[in-house]
Structures are given as structure tokens and as C-alpha cells.
Structure of NADH-dependent flavin oxidoreductase:
Amino acid sequence: MTVSDLFEPLTLLHGRSMPNRIMLAPLVTQQSDFDGSASEFDLDWYRQLSEGGYGLIQTGATTVEAGGIAYGRQLGIHDDRHLVGLRQIATSIRQGGGLSAVQLHHAGHRADPDFGGVPAPASGATLPEVAALTTEQVERIRDSFIEAALRAERAGFDGVCLHGAFGWVLSEFLSPLLNDRTDQYGGSVENRARLTTEVLEGIRRACGADFQIGWRLSIERYGLRLEELREITAEILDREMIDYLDLALWNSAQLVTEGAFRGQTMLSVFTTLPRKGVRVGAAGKIKTAERAAQILDEGCDFVLIGRAAILQRDCPRQVHANQSYTSPPIPVPAQFLRDGGLSERFINHLRGWPYFVS
């Protein structure tokens, strides 16, 4: 593939096509109002992105329940009062020509009480003196995801993407380390995947025929098993339960170091699965136009850009104009980010990563 191939349209199972193959990775910014409503800084951030030439723009992790919060000033979609700001974000993205999606998030056992979070572990062994969710509570969280998707549709978004990565609640239930349940949500691989599949099925039933569904999956840490995740993903792709799979890799070029797939790229474990009409993309240290094109050669349909988008909101337009494009190296001075239009709230969030802000 060439860099030019990144700018070919990409059809999806439902709704409009992506105008190109570059998707914005979901990025937490910690700049919303304390009640989860979109702030003026959120609106400006998505306005900047909407002019950047992305095929699809996802919001950062957006709470489906007040108690599922993981960060201060996290964007919310768990209450109708959030619709005003969300509508403005969706309208801005649509006017810019890209597709839009809300990333639906619940922190599970990682919910932070400092911000009103209520830790919700799958297992009673995960956190000291915190009981496992009851079956009824699991079903409530499932229904909260579905209700949040309906709000996203009412707000004018083209779809939603489930945050099934990094040990958050959907990922947590997939893990045999963090899920020792004996009800229908624990035990076998099928049971541990049940919360994810019931959310996907519920959204498809509740929302319109053109509504798009994505799923973000990570493979490492939190006791996740690569072979099991491949089995679960194969079933979801075969049933065409999603429009696109977003593989959240720390490094898109990394190799499997143990098990049945040792020596293969982590990416190839999933791109070699039959996918029918589902599209597959990956994130992970994609810093150059050349590397983005290589991701397509390695079996992906699209790429996800995160850090490069923070550094330059119009990264896709930069790539289109310069096929030798390379993202600015990090760390960068805070003033570089200010000059680029980032809010002080977002810059303070980025200071949590010592490699980003010098």
C-alpha cells in the first residue's frame, strides 16, 4: 500500500462510509465540567479536530454511569443533561466531513472514589473489602451502556465504540484473573465475554439500522489471554456484531513473546481472522505516514492516530500534503501545545505521562 491509499473511502456495515482510512483514537482530555458536561474546551478541541481531515473521530472515554468514572473532568453520557454539549460535538464533526462516535466507558474495579466513582469489580478478590457485583448489578451496567448508545444516537453521532480495553469493566470481565464469577458472567470464555456480547446485541436492537458500533480491544496486562481474546474476537467478527474493531496496541509492531503465536506480530494474530464485512484497525506508536501505510499492508483496513493528533490536530491533512510526514518528536514544551490550541486542563492531563511534556 502507499500513503495515497490512506485516503481511499472505507465502507462500513451500517451507515455512511469513512471518507478515508485515518481514525482519531479515543483520547481522554480531562477538560469537561465536573458533572460530565462538555465544556467550552471540549467544544474547541473537537472543532479543531473536525477540521483536521479524519475519517472518523471518537470521543475519549465517556461515562455510561456516574459511578463508573475514572478521571476528574471526564466527559459523560449517563444523563440527558449531557446531550446539549454532545449535540454540539456531533454537529461540529459532521460539518467537518468525518464520521463521529462516542466511546462508551465504565471503569469497573478501577472507578475512582476521589471523583465520585464506585469501584465495581467482577470478583470479590480484586479489591480489599469490596464485594463483587451482583448479577443484577452487572445487568444494570449492561443496560447503562445500551441507554448511553441511545443518547449518542439522539445527540446525532454516527455510532458508538465500546471501551473494552485496559482493565475497564468489559475488559475486566474477559480476564480469568479478574473474573472468578460462578454466574452466567463468569467461568467459561463464552460466559466471560457475555457482558460484551449482550451490550453489542442490545445496542444493535435498540438503535437505528444505520447506527455504527465499534469495539476497542487491548491484549496485554490485567490477566488477559491472547488465545482466548482471539477466540472471542473470531466469534464477534463472524457474527458481524460490530462495524469495526479497534486494536489498542502499545506498539503496532510488537511481537508475541510466548504461547501458540510466539514470534508473530500481535497485529497478525487478529488480522488473519476471517472478518466478513467488519473493518479492523490498529493504534500504537504510528508516528509517520510511511508507518501508517504499512499498517494497511499488514492487514488492517484503517489506522488510529493518537499522540500525533495531540501534537498536530490536522495530522491527516499534513499526511495528505506530505507523504514523508513525521510527527513532531516528544517530549514537547507546554508552550508548543498551548500555541497549537490545547487547553491548560488538557496539558495538565498530559503531564501525567512524563514522556509527553518537557
Observations:
- The CA atoms of residues 188 and 242 lie 22 Å apart.
